[in-house]
Amino acid sequence: MADSSDYEDDNWRDRGLGLDPSPSLPNAPRTYERGPVPQQPYVPKPPFLPSAPPPPGQQPYYEPQRDEQYGREHQEQNPFRPQQQPPATPPTTPPAQGRPSSFGPGSNGVPARPPAGNGTPPRPSSNGNAGWSGPAPQPNPFAPSSPPPPPLSPPPPPSLPSSPPSSPSQSSNGHSSNGVIGNGLPPQPPRPPQRLQPPDASRAQQEEPRRRYEPGPGPEPVWGHERRPEPPQQRPPEPSRLSDAAQAYGAGRSQEGARPDESRRREQRYDPQQEDARRRESEQRYEAQQEDPARREGERRYEPQQEDARRPESEQRYEARQEDAPRRESERRYEPQQEDARRPESEQRYGAQADEARRYEVAAAQPRESERVVEQSTQPQEIRLRGDGPRENGYLTDPSAEYEVNAPMTEEPPGESPATEGSRPIGARRRADVQQDAPSQVPAEQVTSHRAARRAFANHTEPAPTSPPQPAAATNSTGGDAEVSPYGGPAAKSNQPAETTGDQAKRPRRYRVHHLRDFKNRGEKWAMLTAYDQYTAEIFDQAGIPVLLVGDSAANNVYGYDTTLRVTVDELIPLARAVANAAQRALVVADLPFGSYQASPEQAFHTAVRFMKEAGVQAVKLEGGRTVVPMVEKLTQSGIPVMAHIGFTPQSEHSIGGYRVQGRGEQAAGLIDDAVALAAAGAFSLVLEMVPGDVAAEITKRIPIPTIGIGAGRDTDAQVLVWQDMAGLRSGTMPRFVKQYADLRGILTSAATSYAAEVANGAFPADEHTF
Ligand SMILES: Nc1nc(=O)c2c([nH]1)NC[C@@H]1CN(c3ccc(C(=O)N[C@@H](CCC(=O)O)C(=O)O)cc3)CN21
Ligand SMILES: CC(C)C(=O)C(=O)O
Ligand SMILES: [Mg+2]
């Protein structure tokens, strides 16, 4: 029986459950991560990581020394860590041996690059051989020399552990919370017992659990999982204990076939013939578009001189992979509403975007003679976005102080003169200044610039009703949920498309936490994407993505760091501001960076307030299980919605010991406990990263808040992917859970190559580009 002492004395941390007792970084400073926290002033002690960056200009960031710092073995586990390149390897040479990946060449699903001479210059690096999109994609930077390490525990059994979570040896996995438990590190200070909610159901029956986010009728415990709108006879019995849960889970599985819509979906997923047909249909439509003579004048303007409708090699490669390569099981599982999301179709629906893509593709098939000339210019540049500059780390210098002390805000009216800008903190500028560039803030009468006009056009050609599968949920709870600020101000949004017909009318003005809860209640799945800038935010927002995450994955997808641990609050806030400003409907969530919330609930509060004030996000996300329950409580009680994140928590990769699936075998119980505790603490949703599918399914049933899976199977309430993975912008080895829906990298490479070639051969600029 897990009583509150399980949490008060932190016994649960010490139940080593098959964890590597000596994960990486035994000597790493832990000041930010686990300091003797709450009462002590927060004093940054840089360098906070084992390898402080070198002074500017001294040595390359990814110097070999980092091998020594982290160890070769660890580095090999990190698919995001830019590695030293074999200098002799030519850029177009695929890796001889790579970690098995569905996106690498060879046996992993990506056909080798076709020979040159088909109109598209060779890509500097093919899938499967490059690292993050950050610094210097070089030949084969990620070809590991050994296969990934075996998982900590054997593959998950067909059913969940049968022991109740009250068993001390199983009620926690020891590190599912944040990956730093049970590894020999000093325990954290005890937490106030009254704040913690035991996850076991027996206690739930004795006490009225918190139901902050519990929707729907019925006096169910907060960890009840009767949330999905399934026929009552199909519901498994309410599991009050884990053993029951396992039983119920099994029952739920066996009844899957009884759910006609579900089984139909799965049949479709696994029907290659149907898929082929859909693909060909899509391609035909796409080809028809290529011939479409009805192009807008404004687009002709950008048309290259030498029209060549041949699609670039990049697309052929992309499609070839989709068609020919043996697709992995995981890809099939994650197939969205099948071909709906395939590019040609979506291009058709998004007319303007399709034409734009075509322009690029036509351009990509341009001058071949000059390829050799521009080859050099298309080589990956050594762009080191990683800051060598001052490293303030973005942490509050004094989290015990009031926010206003740390970052004073001057709430000045929008019309204020910019003359005072320099003297104010970034946050003080707020939207008054930024909104001019934010599509959501530009009134129609101000649409005078080319960009603004395009925005207005795009708004009028918003996604057709059939795409992508929009959660219709928002409707009921929002019906006429016109999100007009009662306080006036930027909520005018006069360029926002009118809520007219189709799904547009079903979408709320702004997705809010309760809409996500409604989705879950109705069994409607939805997608979250990361976004780090204005345009992606705008695009995803208009595509109907209800939640955008400004992830700390910006570390490796924007800043070029090797892990998310490096990104700071000060680095993330500007990105979050751009996204929040650009997103009209989406709920914008920002990750709290590593070190910015673990110290204490107060620290978490101050950091979250910064994101709310300075970036304008509507919610924050933080990683960890029961260890962060006090932080979640503090934030939610302060009016800050919190998205929790358990399973593989990248900020704890060094403690976890690499990129590993979490919650296998006996760890499952602890993970479930974490999920239940976080829901009880008030989190509005829960990310499950790299969690076995059956465990994620069980958690999804158990808690009333939406679960968002990434590498957690199909049974979570929602999915999330890093957008550069989803759209094929970055190269390199992809995690298994990634599916690429486009080849942006190929498109951009072609565009840049063609541009450079035309500049080189004098084709650009032409007369029409000249004033
Ligand atoms: N571009 C990008 N995509 C992501 O999914 C992502 C980021 N960046 N940055 C932050 C975290 C880190 N994440 C990661 C990183 C690596 C693996 C990975 O290598 N997984 C392997 C091994 C799994 C195993 O050992 O079982 C895989 O094949 O999925 C997974 C998640 C997810 N996040
Ligand atoms: C992968 C998602 C969930 C994330 O945390 C991030 O992008 O930072
Ligand atoms: Mg993150």
From TrEMBL:
Gene Ontology biological process: methylation; pantothenate biosynthetic process
Cofactor binding comment, as recorded: Binds 1 Mg(2+) ion per subunit.
Recorded GO MF terms: 3-methyl-2-oxobutanoate hydroxymethyltransferase activity; magnesium ion binding; methyltransferase activity
Binding site for 3-methyl-2-oxobutanoate: 552-553, 591, 621
Biased composition (Basic and acidic residues): 64-76, 205-214, 256-348
Active site: 689 (proton acceptor)
Entry GO CC: cytoplasm
Enzyme Commission (EC) number: 2.1.2.11
InterPro entries: Pantoate_hydroxy_MeTrfase, Pyrv/PenolPyrv_kinase-like_dom, Pyrv_kinase-like_dom_sf
Low complexity composition bias: residue spans: 168-177
Residue stretches of biased makeup (Pro residues): 38-58, 84-94, 136-167, 186-196
UniProt-annotated location(s): Cytoplasm
Catalytic activity: (6R)-5,10-methylene-5,6,7,8-tetrahydrofolate + 3-methyl-2-oxobutanoate + H2O = 2-dehydropantoate + (6S)-5,6,7,8-tetrahydrofolate
Main location: cytoplasm
Record's compositionally biased regions (Polar residues): 493-503
Record-linked SUPFAM superfamilies: Phosphoenolpyruvate/pyruvate domain
Keywords, comma-separated and alphabetical: Cytoplasm, Magnesium, Metal-binding, Methyltransferase, Pantothenate biosynthesis, Transferase
Protein family: Belongs to the PanB family.
Binding partners and assembly: Homodecamer; pentamer of dimers.
PANTHER family: 3-METHYL-2-OXOBUTANOATE HYDROXYMETHYLTRANSFERASE
Protein name, entry field: 3-methyl-2-oxobutanoate hydroxymethyltransferase
Annotated source species: Kribbella jejuensis
